[in-house]
Automatic annotation (TrEMBL):
Pfam families to which the protein is assigned, alphabetical: ADH_N, ADH_zinc_N
Family indicated by similarity: Belongs to the zinc-containing alcohol dehydrogenase family.
PANTHER family attached to this UniProt entry: ALDEHYDE REDUCTASE
Segments forming domain Enoyl reductase (ER): 20-338
Official protein name in the record: alcohol dehydrogenase (NADP(+))
Cofactor(s) needed for function: Zn(2+)
Record has Transmembrane helix as a keyword: no
Assembly and oligomerization: Homodimer.
Matching Gene3D superfamilies: Medium-chain alcohol dehydrogenases, catalytic domain, NAD(P)-binding Rossmann-like Domain
Keywords, sorted A to Z: Metal-binding, NADP, Oxidoreductase, Phosphoprotein, Zinc
Biological classification of the source: Eukaryota, Fungi, Dikarya, Ascomycota, Pezizomycotina
Length: 346
């Protein structure tokens, strides 16, 4: 039996679709339904930097037409017979597992399933996804709070948790934007002794301290910031996506055996840096890419328990072109969430 709903979404057709504000609302061909799939009626979807990189083909891997959005919250409206743990009517989220580390991965969007059908994201009315990407949202978390956690949140939670953030640790978060604000929130929720927010300018100091940061370091205001704060941090998570990363200076901030994690993804190559600190202080440099549904569930439970709230600006889904322009101008404080108003409350 055919469903009584149709798949429509905001489609990007070319790499200038944000600049020209011409994402078009049109029909989407969903993946072929199997008994392992779930159809989700979308109520909320966060705007993520990956969406922008994909729409503009900044990473060189976009196949147009494309419907982006992977911070999806909605209601399960069709559930395959083989699906466990999710039933029709459940409020759910959707996120890929460790597939990004695998050859032939199929992302939430801009991917191709083995049968040739294409994956499409959450700037839409409905989406169809394999059930192992689907999980329930805790009742304590409003949908607009939970949605941006499903990429932005777990992108920070995962490296913090995997690298020992907790009591006894000092943590630095570089870049106080959509990702960085989650870094502060979750570093505090995980119990870090001290959280230092690091940014070039001082204009976000009040926000960072309100989020829970203990100190704020504005690097443009202090030419000796690296030497003056040397050997003070056990863990640094960098969200910066500019290729002009002063890695030499960041490594000075680490204590011996500390770890620097890069999660921001510049479109260009970063400059070379001095490897002596790697040897002298035995520090580690690594990267991290989102997180698994298991980590998302743990993160959401922690957020519900500790009262962690995303800082969001809500926009109607129908104004997605305007919302993307605002995102590009750096206006959100600190995540934009698209609200599909016709589905809210259903």
């Amino acid at each position: 039996m055919s469903p009584d709903y149709s798949f429509k979404g905001w489609v990007g057709l070319s790499n200038d679709c944000i600049e020209k504000q011409n994402l078009l609302f049109s029909d989407i061909e969903p993946k072929t339904f199997t008994e392992d799939d779930v159809d989700i009626r979308i109520t909320h979807c966060g705007i993520c930097g990956t969406d922008v990189h994909t729409l503009t083909n900044g990473w060189g891997s976009t196949t147009y037409p494309v419907v982006v959005g992977h911070e999806i919250v909605g209601t399960a409206v069709k559930v395959g017979k083989n699906v466990q743990g999710v039933k029709i009517g459940d409020r759910v989220g959707c996120k890929v597992d460790n597939e990004p580390h695998c050859d032939g991965m199929v992302g939430t969007y801009n991917g191709k399933y083995p049968d040739g059908s294409k994956s499409s994201g959450g700037y839409a009315d409905y989406t169809r996804v394999p059930s192992h990407f689907v999980f329930k949202i805790p009742d304590a978390l409003p949908s607009e709070v939970a949605a941006p956690m499903l990429c932005g949140g777990v992108t920070m939670f995962s490296p913090l948790k995997r690298n020992g953030c907790g009591p006894g640790n000092t943590v630095g978060i570089i870049g106080i934007g959509g990702l960085g604000h989650f870094g502060i929130l979750f570093a505090k929720a995980l119990g870090a002794d001290k959280v230092t927010a690091i940014s070039r300018k001082s204009n976000k100091a009040a926000d960072a301290l309100a989020m829970g940061a203990d100190t704020y370091l504005a690097t443009d205001d202090d030419p000796n910031w690296a030497s003056g704060h040397a050997n003070t941090l056990d863990l640094i998570v960098s969200t910066v996506n500019s290729p002009k990363l002063p890695i030499d200076s960041y490594l000075q901030l680490l204590r011996p055996h500390g770890t620097f994690v890069q999660v921001g993804a510049p479109e260009d190559k970063i400059p070379g840096f001095n490897v002596v600190p790697l040897i002298v202080k035995a520090v580690n440099i690594t990267g991290s890419l989102i997180g698994s549904p298991k980590e998302i569930k743990e993160m959401l439970e922690l957020a519900a328990q500790k009262g962690v709230k995303s800082w969001v600006n809500s926009w109607p889904l129908g104004k997605v072109n305007d919302a993307l322009q605002a995102f590009e101008r750096g206006e959100p404080r600190y995540r934009i969430v698209l609200v599909n108003e016709k589905h809210v409350g259903k």
